[in-house]
Amino acid sequence: MDMQSSPTAAPASTLCIDGARLWQSLMDLARIGGTPKGGVCRLALTELDRQGRDLFVQWAREAGCSIRVDAIGNIFARRAGQDEALPPVMTGSHIDTQPTGGKFDGNYGVLAGLEVVRTLNAAGIRTRAPIEVAVWTNEEGSRFVPVMMGSGVFAGAFTLEHALAQRDAQGVSVGEALAAIGYAGESGPAHAVGAYFEAHIEQGPVLEKHQRVIGVVQAALGQRWYDVTVQGMEAHAGPTPMELRRDALLAASRIVAEVNRIAVERMPHARGTVGSLEVFPNSRNVIPGRVKFSVDLRAPDDAQLQDMDAALRAACARIAAECQVQAEVEQVVYFPPQPFTPHLVQAVRAGAAELGYSSMDAVSGAGHDAVYVARVAPAAMIFVPCADGISHNEIEDAEPAHLEAGCNVLLRAMLAQAEIAA
Ligand SMILES: [Zn+2]
């Protein structure tokens, strides 16, 4: 890859993070729950999660941070500022993974934050505002639903009681799992945050395709998830002539094509996906009587998302009439689009430019802890490329130079907000 990513792009006088130290920390953390294929399996609130948390806490303490754990298990490592009355400039992400997860998703954002602290320590720099590194509980939502649980509680998206009561497939609740690993912390209102930055691998192919090192994230896409049920009539595949069928799968397949068209007509940022489909009775010689499938629509602004919703419902009604079936559309999840804070987005853009890294504006198609934090504090995100845009996969990979670049941008953006003490 011929990306402009060398740390030597930065002027000699500029404070820079230690890319090798960051990489070593990523590799050390990845050993906890490491899989034979080179990935990581460290599900939220398991014994392995505890080991990962303990290692982070040990590193943060060694770097002079004080540690606070809240009631949903979020960890806040704090580097004191000159003016402790100021709200902290925060960064962070998550260290839980998917069952076949990678080394970088989430872990990068947490360890980039730790690397910022270590860099400030090594340079003897004191900031006016405190610096905090957050480890958010259960971002992935693999063991416990909902996803982005810790940041969601922090931002008031749902209550602590609701989160603690959720159970995994074995019937263990979040509250029980937190207590078992020793991370059920103190309850109390979420503390104020002056600014929040999250560095994350892109989890998509856009930066790599455009050969850019830094993604300046403008917003997270809004999401509407649906269950669609098409009801037709089962009948024998042989004796039933074509014009007398009420084929639920035929109707469903035409709706699937419409979902794709609805998004394609709104490129580049709109998305439309049918990822799951169940056919009843799913038998070779029976005309399908009922089909249930998921629809996932995403867009950067609410007007467009609403427009896509209307287009989906219109397509379902029209195709149902043409196929003589019923189509029921039920929205099951809604995440509003979340724009990030303009002056922090600008700080990321300026940081990349000053350091000589190639960059481009980006949107986040996935949910991140920053999306919830943005509801209660100024927030922005920094994306770096990952190999082939692949994540949630053991083969997830990233270039050390890109991770280093993103961390340097993070350092610069955080310093601009926290200010170097006189
Ligand atoms: Zn993540």
Identify the overall geometry. elongated
At CATH level 2, the architecture of the largest domain is 3-Layer(aba) Sandwich
Question: What is the CATH domain class of the largest domain?
Answer: Alpha Beta
Mean pLDDT: 95
- The total count of helices amounts to 12
Question: Roughly what percent helix?
Answer: 25-40%
Based on DSSP secondary structure assignment, what is the total number of beta strands? Answer: 16
State the distance separating the first and last CA atoms.
42 Å
What is the element string, with H for helices and E for strands?
HHEEEHEHHHEHEEEHEEEEHEEHEHEH
Overall tally of domains:
2
Give the helix/strand class: alpha+beta
Name of the CATH superfamily of the largest domain:
Zn peptidases
Stretches with pLDDT under 50, minimum 5 residues? 1-8
Strand fraction band?
A: 15-25%
The unique ligands bound to this protein are: zinc ion
CATH topology value of the largest domain: Aminopeptidase
For the report, how would you describe the main beta sheet?
Answer: 9 strands, mixed
Q: What's the Cα radius of gyration?
A: 24 Å
Characterization of the model:
This protein is an alpha+beta fold. The chain folds into two domains: 12-221 and 337-418, Aminopeptidase (3-Layer(aba) Sandwich); 222-335, Alpha-Beta Plaits, CATH 3.30.70.360. Helix content is 35%, strand content 21%. The chain has twelve helices and 16 strands. Strands 1, 2, 3, 4, 5, 6, 14, 15 and 16 form a nine-stranded mixed sheet that branches. Strand 1 and strand 2 form a beta hairpin. Helix 1 (19-30) crosses helix 3 and helix 3 crosses helix 12. The protein is elongated. The two termini are 42 Å apart. Bound molecules: zinc ion.
